Target: Xanthine/uracil permease
Amino acid sequence: MGKVGDWVDSFNRKVATSKVGYWFKLDGSGHPKERKGSYFFTEMRAGLATFFAMSYIIAVNGSIVADSGGTCVCTAGPEDPWCKVDPTYAICKAEVKRDLITATAAIAAFATFFMGLLANLPIGLAPGMGLNAYFSYTVVGYHGQGLVPYQVAVTAIFVEGWVFFGLALLGMRQWLARAIPRSIKLATSVGIGFFLTLIGMTYSEGIGLAVGGATVPIELAGCHPESRDSVTGACPDSDKMRNPTMWIGIFCGGILTTMLLMYRVKGAIIAGIILVSVISWPRTTEVTYFPYTDVGNDAFNFFKKVVDFHQIKHVLNVQQWDISGHGGQFGLALITFLYVDILDTTGTMYAMARYASLVDEETGDFEGSTIAYMVDSVSIAIGALFGTPPVTAFVESGAGIGEGGKTGLTAMSTGFCFFIAIFFAPIFASIPPWATGCVLILVGSMMVRAVTDINWKYMGDAIPAFVCIALMAFTYSIANGLIGGICMYMLINTLVWVIEKVSGGRIVPQNKEFKDPWAPNFGSIVPSWMVYIAKGKAPWKKDEPVTSIEGTTGPEPVLVGEKGDRSSGSRPGSPIEIPSEKGAHH
Model:
């Protein structure tokens, strides 16, 4: 071990003193802003940790987005208007899922690799949870029954990517994120958490624990799929909670994963998914994912290839620019994607940069922020061409940072792992929904913890936040929650302000002194890269000061907003695993 250790140290020093080490500011590189404690092999190990924390998205995203039906057309007729049992549609949907698995791995590889190479940040990117649920179940709708066709929806995402690029170029993404009231930011995270939890309990993307009832909005399920009512989807009382796949998902995908997370086992999420999947692959069991049907045979034939490059056939470059008849819905989807992504990506990048001690406390900005936002924006647009929902930064990057990742080499290592995963599409396409259902529930539980940070003392903050949460969950729509919460906040607080001004400050609500201050600090109106050009310094050589906090566990992740604005640091749908030397936030 001594010789191996000496060789590793020697190799780390050689890399650090090379041009590669200087570019990535490795410890010992001689760069004026070198990042202490950053070594080549440490960065590689950190990249693997981030990949194992993020890799669940390959299967989960493909499965959720495939529920929209993609470009498949339902022609079953009035007897099956949603094509729930139509075998032709089911086979087409399976092909779309395989396309999306390849697309998810490909865009994650591209986005993460270039985030590391160009922005020198240890942050992983991939299509975001929460956004993919909004895309599939609200915008496009289950099996294409929503208000916007799949082709128009990915067009909106493509446009969003380039709008973001312009905002990043002008330095406005930070401004927009800071303008959102703190209570709505926190409520957004909580509402999406409940939304994902509900999805994780369904049959299509979860363990099948709950269904819509005939006499009540939702009721207990857990029966065998073939025993469900063909019209309402409800389960007979005699078969409720009897489905073995549900119990495998609960115990192996839920309880086991929870225990692994509690003991801070790296890759806990993917371990639970793998275990349930392996149990579900043999065809001779009651819990098989490959029944002897046309759909099951088709899925099993693809699974047997194991290693295969699946060419994207159904969802590649299907943008539809004629939005006549869908203009209003197109605009709503675009605005909602923009808003959620501003909170999502911007907040997560700041949180991860702070955790890696890469934030300049004087300016509130982090190293390479403009380049990072540009990489994210271009990745969103390219992902739309691949047929995926918006790409966003992942809080799971904290797993790699906790392993010592401080530079872009960590992200490049993660990106390379996603590239390798492209060639294992048959494996990722064969992960059953009951393997990922409890993951969604666990993600939801991690996101709703931000509810304790909402200001419940003042109703002007509490009521809009509650409306935002309730509408997201009970209307099965993230957009409804966002619109309702923001409108309620504006209406209530505007009326309070008017009454206070008219009365000369004599009539104020109870507990007004506890109101969250809303005075966003937009900072300089001139983007940082323009400042550097004005000073005669090339923007690509920008080196903000690095704040290093010796002997501490690092700052707690925060969302961009008012000073002291804290939330779970989560992005929609991300399990939070940010270990540190002296403790971890889970």
In short: The radius of gyration is 24 Å. The chain is about 55% helix and 0% strand. The first strand starts at residue 125 and ends at 127.
